Amino acid sequence: MFIKTMSESGVRLHFLSLILLCCVSPSIFFTLNLDNSRYVACGPHQTQALTEFMNEFDSSQCNLTDPYNGVWCDNSTSAVTKLRLKACLSGTLKPNSSLFRLHHLRYLVLRDNNFTSSSLPLELGNLNRLEILFLPNNRFVGQVPSSLNSLNLLSYLELSQNEFTGSFPLVRNLTKLSFLNLKYNHFSGTLNPNSNSLFELRHLRYLDLSYNNFSSSLPSEFGNLNRLEVLDLSSNDFFGKVPPTISNLTLLTELWLDQNRLTGSFPVVQNLTMLSFIYMNDNQFSGTIPSSLLTMPSLSILHLRRNDFTGSIESPNSSTPSRLEEMYLGHNHFEGKIIEPISNLINLKILDLSSLNTSYPIDASLFSSLKDLLLLDLSGNSISPASLGSKSGIPKNLKTLWLNDCGINKFPDILRILEKLENIDISGNVIRGKVPEWLWKLPRLNTVFLTSNSFTGFEGPVEVLVNSSIVNLFMEQNSFEGEIPILPFSINVFSASDNRFTGRIPLSICNYRDLTLLRLSYNNLTGPIPQCLSNLTSVNLRKNNLEGSIPDTFYISSSLRSLDFGHNRLTGKLPRSLQNCSSLEFLVVDHNKFKDKFPFWLKALPNLKVLILSSNELYGSISPPDQGPLGFPELHIFEISDNKFTGSLPPRYFVNWKAASLTMNEYAGLYMVYTKTTSEGLSYVILEGIDLQYKGLSIKQGRVLSSFATIDFSGNRIEGHIPESIGLLKALIALNLSNNAFTGRIPLSLSNLSKLESLDLSSNQLSGTIPNGIGSLSFLAYINVSHNQLKGEIPQGTQITGQAKSSFEGNAGLCGLPLQETCFGSNASPTQQRGEEDKKEEHVLNWKAVVIGYGPGLLLGIAIAQFIASYKPEWLAKIIGPNKRRNC
Ligand SMILES: *[C@@H]1O[C@H](CO)[C@@H](O)[C@H](O)[C@H]1NC(C)=O
Ligand SMILES: *[C@@H]1O[C@H](CO)[C@@H](O)[C@H](O)[C@H]1NC(C)=O
Ligand SMILES: *[C@@H]1O[C@H](CO)[C@@H](O)[C@H](O)[C@H]1NC(C)=O
Ligand SMILES: *[C@@H]1O[C@H](CO)[C@@H](O)[C@H](O)[C@H]1NC(C)=O
Ligand SMILES: *[C@@H]1O[C@H](CO)[C@@H](O)[C@H](O)[C@H]1NC(C)=O
Ligand SMILES: *[C@@H]1O[C@H](CO)[C@@H](O)[C@H](O)[C@H]1NC(C)=O
Ligand SMILES: *[C@@H]1O[C@H](CO)[C@@H](O)[C@H](O)[C@H]1NC(C)=O
């Protein structure tokens, strides 16, 4: 039986071991040796081709001792039959590559290599003896060549995690194919059976098209694929109803339809007796949930979150006990009874009933029969207060109870008797007063979320927490007062932002060996920063009244990923030992009184993504000593505004920034600083937020941008030209160079920044004309070039014409809308005049300028900094990407 897995080795074990043992003759294994090409058992021709192939790439990363890599040759014919190279090659795979001379290959595995921007050449078709083609995660782009169709011995095809585009590949002749994985690419188009050969693959046992852009209804021909064991269509744009022919797939064990736009009532799957996982979450399925599902013989996971299911659930009519272990029904619209039937599902371990939208309060004591229940999520429901009382019949074995946003106004006494409770979330309720002392005596308590209530303190003595077993404590957005509490030695995460804590940060912080995340931002703390923060992963002390300098004690810190000391009264220099924090991604020290030169020495940090130094007293040149590129290859947010920086930007300043390329799955203004997984595989993600204050930026909280970069150099004394290399930063969405002394022309390359939403070049000494291409930047919601020495016509485009006049004022020579000075009379051409007439209409179409205008910059800061998510499997999958939960 197939189990879904990304790993080639896993699959080989389950499925291919037979093929490998029989077909590859008692082969001789060679570690690739690049220096002196010795593949003696392989024929000389083959050896040469292989060496040439390796030499086409930078293969210096090849770990020659890695037993994964290797080449196998057939003893009798001495031809290369099997080649396997992992995370080893970097360069372009060319059509004339010697790879395509290895005609005898049956087994080709190239995974995790860096074939940036290579497409798969047509010559792939030369390798027509291939039985196994395994190419995941190689950065391939473009369409899969039609020559794939000539590999008619192929039984196994894995192309996942590349950047392939185009429609479903031509596979008509691949009649032996039993495994096909296209996951995580950009395939698009429909699955129309008339133009598509998918449904002729009658031997297919495993089909994964998830995380692509297919947009299609599901043809009834899916019923042809009746050998399928795993079908994964999740995270595409599939719409319409699931065809009834799905009931033909009687061997199916896993059905993944989640994160699409599927509609209609529950598909008829009851006779698919092998089914053990059903994932239909995040669709628009409606109607009731058939009770026969609950007693399907193999079904152990039923995932139906975020649909439009209504009505009630009938009690299952069967003597066969339910095998269901995990059931997710959250975020639907149940009106009728659903609790009583669920109380019969006695094998349940995980039950998600969040946000059911029932018209009545949920009675938590009805779950008393679920003796094995480990996790109960009742968040977002109103819960009958009595059922949270200490006499309630809630299952006593619960390890995890989520009760956030339930409108609870009294600390739930029921917790007192849950001796096995490890994790409790009561955030987002309206509980006042003090946290009861007994809570800390629960023997297995691990993680507590008290966030967003109105707690003012802890009941009991000062050291009430000290003997508790608690490991993670979240208590942001309350009204806790006084000094920071003394924590137990076991503490791992302490997050207490946005309260009213006063006094100093206790030195006892330094005694907590396992502390990895400390957030005390938005309080009224005073005094110095303790010396011992270098062992942490993330520390946020933003917006307090801390004084003194940052202790220079980060010598051996390889764990620190995120540090935010912004908005304090810190002085002195940036600690040089920070350059030893090789994992640092996020360094924020804005709005302090640091006096220092630009920290070129941070260039050594390979992962730095966010550097915010704004509003300090930093000085000196920002041009690198060697006049070359700035370095900082990973930088995405770079803000140094409002300092006293001088110097100019050399031509190659922006070369080599990763922001030049677009990467997927990053969150706007949010950085994941911490993830934690509990024993049952439940985990939560902690995100750190950034204030992105650029006019015109349309970032919404948590919106996924494919990737983005922002630069703010405003309010310094930087001079010289704006380098053309700025045009390389394809991911740039906001650029603020205002209030400096830049001279020369506006670089033409700005027109290449097609994602740009906000551009401020005002108050410099720029001359020449505004490049025409800027007029066609379709996302540009804000532009300001006022107070320069620009001349000529303002480029006319929908985004520009709607801008305020003040964005162009103070330039003696500019003309055209939105300024009153027309460009007529001089040498305006007839087309330009016609353009003038069209402008009224364009003005109406200028939705973005009208809606967004040039309102205040979007403040993403603290609201998001407090954004803590308890684990919701599909949510996590969205944020982290590939981490979909599965049982294997
Ligand atoms: C392969 O083609 C490239 C051009 O794409 C060329 O530079 C190179 O010399 C060719 N290599 C061989 C071995 O023919
Ligand atoms: C269902 O599967 C059978 C083989 O078991 C096949 O002959 C038939 O065409 C399939 N029916 C549909 C509607 O796909
Ligand atoms: C329960 O099942 C039996 C036979 O399996 C059937 O006769 C009966 O009508 C069913 N009852 C309900 C309520 O579906
Ligand atoms: C970095 O750490 C090493 C010890 O591992 C230390 O010798 C060195 O001084 C540190 N560098 C800085 C700038 O603190
Ligand atoms: C650019 O920075 C200045 C402050 O230095 C600020 O006043 C202005 O609003 C910023 N421009 C944009 C577009 O956010
Ligand atoms: C814009 O980018 C293209 C390629 O991406 C390049 O050829 C062109 O020179 C760039 N234009 C400018 C003005 O930099
Ligand atoms: C453009 O910048 C100037 C100077 O900084 C400022 O006075 C003006 O208000 C800005 N215009 C808009 C629309 O923000």
TrEMBL record:
Residues 188-308 form the Disease resistance R13L4/SHOC-2-like LRR domain. This is Receptor like protein 24-like. Belongs to the RLP family. Keywords: Cell membrane, Glycoprotein, Leucine-rich repeat, Membrane, Receptor, Repeat, Signal, Transmembrane, Transmembrane helix. The keyword Magnesium does not apply. It is a single-pass type I membrane protein. It is found in: Cell membrane. SMART domains: LRR_SD22, LRR_TYP. It comes from Raphanus sativus (Radish). SUPFAM superfamilies: L domain-like. Signal peptide: none annotated. One of its GO terms (cellular component) is plasma membrane. The gene is LOC108854096. The keyword Metal-binding does not apply. It holds the Pfam family LRR_8.
